[in-house]
Design goal:
With about 130 residues, the chain is of the alpha+beta class. Helices cover about 30% and strands about 30% of the residues.
């Protein structure tokens, strides 16, 4: 049972991975979603936005998920399961990962100024 200090939602991340092994994974973006539709919409908007710049195979992967895979993703999110969507463009894999979480009501992300300790925490690559 969640207390009033927590709220269920989804933590969404977008990672890139250099498949040549020259660079490690890099976190490009993150998003806090408070519903399954909001979480999968974040991925859908990103895929629609970048699909014209992707090579043919990656664009096909993107549109396949948009037309068919999105339904399974939404159903999995509603069951509070981890989901990931990936496309591979040239030597780069782009992965959107969505995890069910309980958000703590400690500080708002858009606060006017973050505490000094916030710079001490760096995102770590995660295996999904």
């Amino acid at each position: 049972m969640l207390s009033q200090a927590t709220r269920r939602g989804f933590w969404c991340e977008c990672w890139t991975e250099d498949l040549t092994g020259q660079r490690g994974p890099a976190l490009l973006a993150s998003f806090d979603a408070y519903s399954a539709p909001q979480a999968d919409r974040w991925v859908a908007v990103a895929l629609r936005t970048i699909s014209p710049a992707l090579d043919t195979d990656a664009s096909d992967e993107a549109w396949e998920w948009l037309y068919e895979g999105r339904i399974q993703t939404r159903q999995a999110l509603l069951r509070a399961e981890l989901c990931a969507v990936s496309v591979t463009h040239a030597s780069t894999r782009i992965t959107w990962a969505i995890r069910p979480v309980a958000f703590l009501s400690l500080a708002h992300r858009q606060g006017t100024e973050l505490p000094p300790c916030s710079a001490d925490f760096r995102p770590q690559p995660r295996n999904i």
